């Protein structure tokens, strides 16, 4: 009985050993494949790096044909920080300026630099853009502060093309003249601190103003327009009474008497 158990144990151990050897050989084969795969990957990466280095040298050779200039390449170009100081802009704006394609750029080490020659050639253009940005346009947050609006309401006006907008150095800017022209032609929005809206229609009156001047309900002022007694125009979907027509009608009747002057009311009524 003990001999039988021993033979069975030996057979079991043999089966286990054979299975282990098979797995070991299989794992070894997979490991060899992985090693070969990594070798090919490393070889590919080396070739890519060599190709990039060759391309970089060709770009340097194209930009600086003289060998001496190639050695002094980093001294013949502006870094992002130097462009930032040169044009008095932030480093973020300087980087966007370099990426917009206006300057000829190349890489020195881990840093991109712009050719001094291309920067000097385009300096007037950049300064003109920056001057336009500072004096002729304003940022979206500026519009928000002027009108006392939130971000959503402000961008709704922009998306409705109420005034002209531009992208300057990757940022949206609002044309000041276009904004003022829009502001003068509407009555819905009013500046927090500044002139009243609707300057284009200064010779018109709102029904609410007429109601305040005559001391009558607003509905009665609307009836003056509905009955054709006074002339009116439409501005932004709302009716406004012509000042000349109102004055002419007022002088021809005796039913209504002014309780306030128009100038007094216009101080707080649009």
TrEMBL record:
Domain of life assignment: Bacteria
Pfam families referenced in this protein's UniProt entry, alphabetically: HTH_17
Domain Helix-turn-helix: 210-253
Protein's UniProt name: Helix-turn-helix domain-containing protein
Organism field: Suipraeoptans intestinalis
Biological classification of the source: Bacteria, Bacillati, Bacillota, Clostridia, Lachnospirales
């Amino acid at each position: 009985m003990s001999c039988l158990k021993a033979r069975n144990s030996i057979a079991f151990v043999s089966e286990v050993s054979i299975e282990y050897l098979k797995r070991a050989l299989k794992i070894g084969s997979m490991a060899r494949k992985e090693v070969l795969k990594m070798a090919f990957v490393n070889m590919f990466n080396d070739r890519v790096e060599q190709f990039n280095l060759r391309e970089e040298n060709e770009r340097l050779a194209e930009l600086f044909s003289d060998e001496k200039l190639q050695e002094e390449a980093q001294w013949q170009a502006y870094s992002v920080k130097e462009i930032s100081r040169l044009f008095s802009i932030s480093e973020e704006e300087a980087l966007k300026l370099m990426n917009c394609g206006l300057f000829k750029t190349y890489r020195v080490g881990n840093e991109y630099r712009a050719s001094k020659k291309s920067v000097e050639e385009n300096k007037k253009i950049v300064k003109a853009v920056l001057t336009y940005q500072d004096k002729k346009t304003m940022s979206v947050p500026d519009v928000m502060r002027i009108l006392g609006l939130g971000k959503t309401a402000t961008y709704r006006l922009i998306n409705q093309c109420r005034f002209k907008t531009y992208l300057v150095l990757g940022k949206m800017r609002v044309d000041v003249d276009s904004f003022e022209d829009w502001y003068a032609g509407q009555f819905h929005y009013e500046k927090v601190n500044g002139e009243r809206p609707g300057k284009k229609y200064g010779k018109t009156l709102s029904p609410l103003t007429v109601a305040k001047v005559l001391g009558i309900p607003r509905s009665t002022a609307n009836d003056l327009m509905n009955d054709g007694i006074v002339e009116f125009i439409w501005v932004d979907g709302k009716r406004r009474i012509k000042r000349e027509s109102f004055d002419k009608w007022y002088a021809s009747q005796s039913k209504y008497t002014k309780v306030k002057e128009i100038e007094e009311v216009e101080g707080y009524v649009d």
